[in-house]
Structure formats: C-alpha cells, structure tokens
Amino acid sequence: MKSKLLLMALMLFTSFAFSQNLEVNGTVLDASGLSLPGVNVKVKGSSQSTTTDFDGSFKLTAVPKGSIIAVSYIGFRTQEVIVSDSKITVKLAEDARSLDEVVVIGYGSQKRREVTGAVSTVGSKTLEILKPIKVEQALQGTVSGVNVTTQSGAPGAGLDIRIRGIATNGQNGPLMIIDGYQGDLSLLNPNDIETITVLKDAQAAIYGSIGANGVVLITTKMGRKNSQTKVSYNAYTGFQETSRKLPTLNATEYGLLLNESYANGGRALPYPNISNLAKGTDWQDEVFGKGVPIINHDLSFSGGSEKITYSISGSHLDQEGIVGGDKSGFLRNTARIALGADLSDRIKLKTNLIYTYFTRKTLNENGLGSVLFNALNVPATLSPYNANGDFSLVPSTTGLGTEIINPLAQIANTYNDYNYKKINGNFGLDFKIFNGFVLSSAIGFNTSNSEGKNFAKQISYGGKVFDVQRSSVTQNTVNDNNYSFDLFGTYTKKFEDKHNVTGTIGTTIFREWGNGLFATGFDVPNNSWQFADLSLTKGISEALNTSGYVYDQRRLSYFGRLQYDYKGKYLLSAILRRDSSTKFGPGNKVGYFPSLTAGWVISDEGFFGESKTISFLKLRGSYGTLGNDQIPNFGYLALLTGEATYVFDGTLVNGIATGQVPNPNLKWEGARKFDVGLDAKLMNDKVNVVADYFIDTRNDLLIQNIPVSGITGIGAPGASSPTLNAGSVRNSGFEFAIDYSEKFSDNFSMTIGYNVTFLKNEVLEVNNGIGFIEGGSFGVGQPAPSRMEIGKPMGYFYGYKTDGIFQNQAEVDAHPSQVALGANAAPGDIRYVDTNGDGVLDTKDRTNIGDPIPDATMGFNLQLNYKNVDFSMYTFASVGNDMVRNYERTLSDANRLDYVLDRWTGEGTSTTVPRVTTGATANNVFSNYFVEDASYIRIQNIQLGYTLNPDITAKAGMTKLRLYTGVNNLYTFTKYKGFDPGASNGAPIGGGIDYGFYPIPRTYLLGLNINF
Asked: If you ran DSSP here, which 8-state letter would residue 759 be given?
C-alpha cells in the first residue's frame, strides 16, 4: 500500500513539474543587435501569440516549460526557441536568399526551391537604397537579362525596359502586373513596393498573348497580422547638376578654326582680328542649372489585428530640371490604401487602391533644334543678350542654317503644361471551398484623364524655321480606361508524403477603351501664355485644326497550370492559355500558348552525398510559346482615318478618306522561348549562383511598308500600305549572377553581387518586298541610317565605311572617285571604302557600320554594415553598344567639339579627323566616322547611412532613426563623346542615334528614415 501511495505521489510531482507554467519576457534583435518591432511570436501547438513592441520586447503568460516558441519576421529566418527560462533573447538572421522564400509567378506563388523558370526578384531594401524616382531604374544592374535605357534625363521622362533583348520592330516593353492586374509601373511610388519579380522565360506563358516581352510582377506592401501600428516616414532632399558637359570650342578656338575653314574654301576671313575674342560664351553653362532642387516625402501607416491588415501611404515628389529652370519640372503625388480581411475562416478579402497625380513641363529635346542641340552649335563668339538686354539673334547665314537659334530665347519662349490623374486598384476574394481548394476572384481597373496645353508665341528668331508668324494654342484631353476580371481555382494536394500536386484553372476578361480630343486655336489674345486658351482664340484656321480618336478592345482568356513534384526533388510544371482578342480578324481571333518547365534538385539525390561545398544544386529547363498583341488597333479593317480635300461648288473642303490598307489575316506575334538554367548555393549558403542559357525566337513580326499599287491611295495623308506578319528575330544569350554574403562578426557584415548577360541578336526574316525596314534620321536630307535586315542585328547602322584621311593628291587619284557621294575628294578629306569592289563609290557601298545593341551588360553591387554604419554602391556596365553622333550640325559656321582641333592640316598631321573648309566635300555623309563605341561603366548609386542607437531613439518614441547621404549617377566612365552613352529614344530601329540626349542629372541626397 505504501508503495502505491509513493508511486502516486511521484506521478503527481512529475506531472506538476512538467506542467509548470512560466511568464516569458523576451527581446528580438536583428543580426547587428538592433531591436525588431512587429515580429510575430507564437507558441507552437497553441493559439497564443503576440508581436514585439517598438523596442523589440514581448511578453507571453502561462507558457508551459519546455514549449517551443516560433519567432518569424519577413526577411529573416524563422527561429524556434525551447522555453526553459522566464527571460529569453532571440537574434534573427537575415534570410534574403532562403529557399523557402515565396516567389510570385502569376496567378499563384512558389517556394524558390520549387521554381522551374528563369525568375529574378528585387526587394524593398534595394529600392530603399537606390532611391529611384521611377521604379524601372531599380532594375538596371540588379537583375540579369534586363536592360533599362533612359529616353531622357529630363524630369518625368520615360524609360524603356528590355528583357533579354529587342525581339520585335514594334512594342518591346514587358507586361506590367501590379498585385494581379495590368498596370503602369512608371507611375508607382517606389516606397509602396514590397517586391519586383521578373519572369523572363516560358514561365510567363500563363499570360499568353501579352507575355512575349517578359512580365514584371509588382507586389505592394501590406500590413501584418497581430502587429501594432507602424508609422514610417522617409524623406530626402538634394540638388542636381549635369553629369556631363561636352568640350566645345571657346570663342578664340572657334575664330581660328573658322578662319582656316574660310581660307581653305577660298573666302575672306570672318575674324581678321582674333585677339579680342577671348573665351566668349559657354552656352552649356548658360542653359545648365546648378544646385537644382529635388525633394521627396513618404509617409505610411501599417499594422493589423488577428483578422484585418492595413497599409496606408502617401508621397510627394518635386523635381526641377537641370535645363530650363521653371520651364522644366516634374511633380508627383500619390496616395494608397491596402486592406486585407479574414471575413470568415473560409473567405478572405484583399483590396488595394492607388491615386496618382502628376504635372510635367518639358522643353524641346532629342532632335534638330532642341535646346541642347542649340547650346552645342551656337558659336561661342555670340553673346546671350544684345546691347538692349534682349536675346541676341543667331545670324541666318548659310554657314549657320535656319534651325540654330539662341537656346536661352528658346527656353524663355517655351510654354506648355501637362497634368495627369489616375485611379487604379483591385478587389479580390479568396474562398476556401474545401481543404486544399481555393477559389479566387479579382477585379482590377485603371482609369485616367490627362490634359495638355502648348502655346506657340508669335515671335521671330531672325528668319529661322522656329519663327512663329501667328500665335496659337493647342490643347488636348485624353481619357483611358481598362478593367480585368479574373476567376480561378487552385487545388493543392499531397499524396503519400511524396507526391505534391498543385492545379490552377481560370479565366480572365480584359477590356480597354478610351478617347482623345485635340484642337488648335489661333491668334491668342495679347500673345500671352496667360490668355492661352481655346475659349479665347478667335482666329480662323486655314486648315483642319481639330482631331480625335476613340478605341475599344477586349480580350477573353482561359488558362490552366499543373505543377507536380516528387519529394521536392523532381519538379514539373505545364501551362496552357487560350486567348481571343478583338484586335484581330475573324480567322485569327484565337490563339493557344502552351509551355512546359521542369527542374531537378540534384543535391537531394543520395549519390550527391553531404557536400561541404555545395548545399543546394538545381537544374531546370523550360520551353513554350507566348504572344505579343501590342499592335495598332483595327489593322484588319478599312477605317476612315485618312485626310482628303474635296471640291464642292468650286470651293476646297476638308474631309476624310480611307486610311491604312486593311489586312484581314493580321494576327499577333509569337515567341518560342527556350531556357536551361542552374541554381546553386555554396559555402553554407554564403554564395548563391544562378546561370541561364536562352534562345528566344520571335515570329510573325508586324512588317509595314509592304509595296502595293499607288491607286489604292496609300500616298494620301493618314493613309499607308498594309501591315503583314512577315518578320522574325532571334535573341540568344547567357546570363550569370553570383552573390556572396558574409557575416565576419556581430559588428561587421558584407554582401557582394555581380551579374552579367551576354546577348546576340539576329534578324531572320523581313518579307516586305525589299528585304529591310529603315528607321531613324541623320543630318538633313540624308537616307535613314538604321535598318532591320536579314542576317543583321535589329536596328544596325547602315552607311559608308571609312579608311582614314587622304594625305596627298596621289592617294586621291589612286582611289575610286567619290563625286557620287557629293563632291570630289581632296587631300584632307575622308577616304571611303569601295566595299563591293566594283571600282565605283556610290550608295551600293553602304554596309553594316555599327550595332546599338550591347554585347554584354553587367551589374556590380556592394553593401557593407559596421555596427550602426551602412554603406552601399551599385554600378552598371554596358559593353559593345555603338551610338551615332548626330548632335552636331554639319554647317561650316556651327560650333564644334574640341576633337576637331586634331584635324588634318597637312600631310601626316591627322589620319582620323578631316580638314575644315567651306567648300563642298563628302565628309558629312553618314559613315562610321559618326559612329562611336558607347560602352560605359556607371556608378549608379553610392550611399552612406548611420542608424542611431535604439536606446536613444526609444526615448523619443521611435523604433528607428537613420540618417544617410548619397549620390545618384555619380560618374560614367566612357570614351563616347556625347552626353549619355546609355540613352535611347526607345525605337527598335533608330534607337541608338544621339540627337543630343538630355543628360541624366547627378543628384546629391541627404535623407532620413524614421519608424514609430
């Protein structure tokens, strides 16, 4: 009996010991020892959970001793701690490259280790460091296979994204998906973005006819459940300056050169007395501002309860231009609200609304007669103002032409304004029908309205083409709308702990519609911007002065995806999408876009063993077909979009006529994408490697200028020949990215990243009757310098090849005559190559003289953290891209860059730069003399920050206070003579021609980040 009582007592004591409860007080820190607020802390196996407060502390009551507490926070590895004491400290390690990281892939997500396509991501931390004005800038140098080019450095100017090269003669921009709906990346506030995901291969086939150019998926920030309200304020201010000035001739150098030119032409010297010219006017100093301000504010609130999450934010950006003062600028305001709610255990709601408003003022740029073009070509001997204080006039002599004017007068007489308002967002519901099956629905929409006004003041520049004989104001209003409705179901099932299946099937409805109105009024009252409004103009127009358009297009799609893996080791994904579109004729409305991706996690195989060097190794491949429907509307129909003039009762009357000749067989472009890749993690996950080889073949390109009979009226204004699917382009290349992260101590850590992309572009087919398409322009009246042609890269430069400078008359006599190029050659002139060897130099000798597409692009990024100090640097390089120097007016009296000082002045003096003369020469025909290697390395961003000790900031009620300073676009290393070797006007044919690109400003920033 005693033994039984003893046993019962022992059991009661043991039970008491194991059921002892503790009040746990804990602190959560990051790798550097700073407190982390908003961290989720949960007792495993129970419903008890909490979040850390502003100083990283938490409290849990009645926690059984021996329980396991899971500590999780986005961007850090989840850590589990066994409760053995009432006080614990948890230090979380960053997990930016964890294989369990969830990657968005379109209509769903996957763990990174399961992804079988070529997918890259950029996180919010990178955006915080780079401080891009537009989101697209954050992709340059951070994602392999992606090249971002600026159309201009002017405030608010557009950017072009190219994923794995230029594949079509039409629209090459990728599809932008924002939280599941089609949107505009350039209008987003970068501070609202959580992640950017880029789909580069057949993984994008889930988007079918709109995914051929690649897909960029944006996930915006949301609140977190069970977290206190987090207030974040980020602001920076700074000033801008030009990143580059071109070395033009000063007044004395110009006078000496002009005297020599006139003497060589047998004319009287224009500057017989050089001594009083001095340096003259530096026109670039006159037009470029110094200390030009930029300011940005971001304020956000986020948090959540057990069932509701929220994120509310607003931003203000104000950027002035480095050219033009108050005549150039960009102001953007955004407001956003995102809500998530668990309406029940089965139904979840998610909504996101964004309002954007911006205004922009612009100057004439990127062309003959632009502000910078004039600043480079106006002689330094001219003063900005005359004796009366008025703007001086540039003489209308033959040597200065009729398009070069005083750039300061041009700026002063530029009047325009543009404002844009947009609301976009989505509403989504997830309904858990039964365990493993979720039905999702979402409505996304965009609605925008823009208004523009441009005033042409009546003015004379002294007989120039920019003289305005009659004042006018042109106004326009554009309304664009679209909506999408997605309905899809996702079924997830695991069989026998080995087989994992995820199936997705759904439908999408997309409609886009809008209209635009344009009108011009003449004789503005008082010839003033103040009265520049259509309602005040009473002048009678002599020609058609109103126009407009309306459009309405729709797309109906069905899609399905099946994902399977065996033990997480063998991975397979199959996608099929069916699209029908109103853009195409009855016989081509429907298209099918299949793809297949697969992966093999080699490191999970038994034969791989326990490698001390390689912790993860995956081989993957993909193949599929995608489409591109970015073509003009109604190309398969005959529309009355042409202009015509008719005679009624002896009077000319403006009317309409047929436009483009229709092609009922028009259809979308198709892309066959092949990719094989390798993912690896080395040295205890410190090194991450991604490598891909790809081939992207685009078929059925839309080719214009098909020769047809003139009796169809194709020569009339607004009319054109039909467009056919008659082209093909192939891009192939290799991508490689490597990242290394090392924590040397609790105080010091480092991350280094490098990526490179090698690309080859080749046109395979152009069936338009002549075998090529021309584009771009050079000089005045010369043939188009850029082409798309079989066997050549897209947009290659087509002109004459040079072979040095004629040194004497004997060399001239021994060479085929160059008179067909414009003039007989003389010693000191450029010697052109007879490429076809027929003994005659003429247009048949034009050939490939350059390629605007880089052979390789790469990025190198560095981040260092020492105690409370952080440093980062982001760089980008482009190798092998050529650019045409077309910002110099080839007139005898125009100013020149100082390379002309190395000109030929006699036998043996120069083999690269021709003589100067007012006489006739062929030196200015388009040749490789004007084509330069535009390879460059750019330091895109350098930033140095300091985070105050949390013990100090906590006394002020803050969880974080970080101060930083930085420089964007610090320096560009290049041999190219122009303002920006990385700029492009965006055209696939003619995009590498420099008309005087507005340089990207160098920006010095001072900012702070505050969290409450």
From this structure: E
Q: Are 884 and 797 in contact (CB under 8 A)?
A: yes
* pLDDT tens-place string over residues 664-673: 888 889 999 9
| Alpha-carbon span 253 to 261, nearest angstrom | 12
Please report the pLDDT score of residue 637 as a whole number.
82
Position 32 scores a pLDDT of: 58
Name every residue whose Cβ is closer than 8 Å to that of residue 923 and which is 6 or more positions away in sequence: 829, 830, 914, 929
Give the phi and the psi of residue 981 in degrees, each rounded to 5: -70, -10
Q: Which residues pair with 350 in a beta bridge?
A: 340, 428
DSSP string, 323-392: BSGGGSEEEEEEEEEEEEEE-SSSEEEEEEEEEEEEEEE----SSTT-HHHHHHHS-TTS-SB-TTSSBP
Closest CA to 416 of 371, 455, 369: 455
Give the length of the chain.
1012
Q: How confident is the model at residue 99 (pLDDT cuts 50, 70, 90)?
A: low
d(CA 674, CA 695): 5
Cα–Cα distance for residue pair 604/153, rounded to 1 Å: 49
Task: Output the six-digit token pair for 282.
Answer: 């530096």
pLDDT of residue 890: 86
Regarding beta strands 87-91 and 21-29, do their DSSP bridges make them parallel or antiparallel, or are they unpaired? Answer: parallel
Structure tokens at 736: 């490689």
Measuring CA to CA, which residue among 511, 500, 627 is closest to residue 559?
Answer: 627
Question: Is residue 818's pLDDT more than 70?
Answer: yes
Choose from 17-26, 419-428, 533-542 the range with maximum mean pLDDT. 419-428
**CA–CA dist 673, 578 (Å, integer):** 17
Among 42-56, 682-696, 873-887, name the one with the lowest average pLDDT: 42-56
What's 307's DSSP letter? S
DSSP for 676-690, written as a single string: EEEEEEETTTTEEEE
Joined together, the tokens standing for residue 820 give 């067909």
State the Cα–Cα distance between residues 296 and 245, nearest whole angstrom.
27
- Separation of alpha carbons 224 and 228, rounded Å: 9
**What kind and span of H or E run contains 450?**
strand 437-456
Question: How far apart are the C-alpha atoms of 564 and 370, rounded to whole Å?
Answer: 58
DSSP state of 204: G
pLDDT at 994 over 90: yes
Q: Which residue has the tokens 């003015």?
A: 459
pLDDT at 1005 over 70: yes
**pLDDT for the residue 34:** 67
State the alpha helices, DSSP H only, in 791-879. 809-814
Q: How far apart are CA 65 and CA 84, in angstroms?
A: 6
Q: Could you tell me which of 340, 452, 448, 457 has the C-alpha nearest to residue 410?
A: 457
- Please compute the mean of the pLDDT values over residues 714-741 and round it to a whole number: 89
pLDDT band at 10, cuts 50/70/90? very low
Look at residue 157 and tell me whether its pLDDT is greater than 50. yes
| For residues 234-238, average pLDDT | 96
CB-based burial label for 1003 (10 Å; 0-12, 13-18, 19+): buried
* φ/ψ (deg, to 5) at 462: 95, 45
Distance CA 56, CA 89 (A): 10
Q: How far apart are CA 94 and CA 82, in angstroms?
A: 21
Q: What residue has token string 């076809």? A: 836
Q: What value does the mean pLDDT of the chain take?
A: 91
Q: Is residue 632 predicted with pLDDT exceeding 80?
A: no
18: pLDDT strictly greater than 60: no
What stretches of 744-829 adopt beta strand conformation (E)? 748-766, 772-775, 786-789, 796-799, 802-805
DSSP-based three-state secondary structure for 881: coil
For strand 215-220 and strand 146-150, is the pairing parallel, antiparallel, or unpaired?
Answer: unpaired
Separation in Å, CA 96 to CA 102, 313, 376, 681, 682: 11, 25, 48, 13, 15
Q: How many CA atoms lie within 13 A of 454 on its CB side?
A: 10
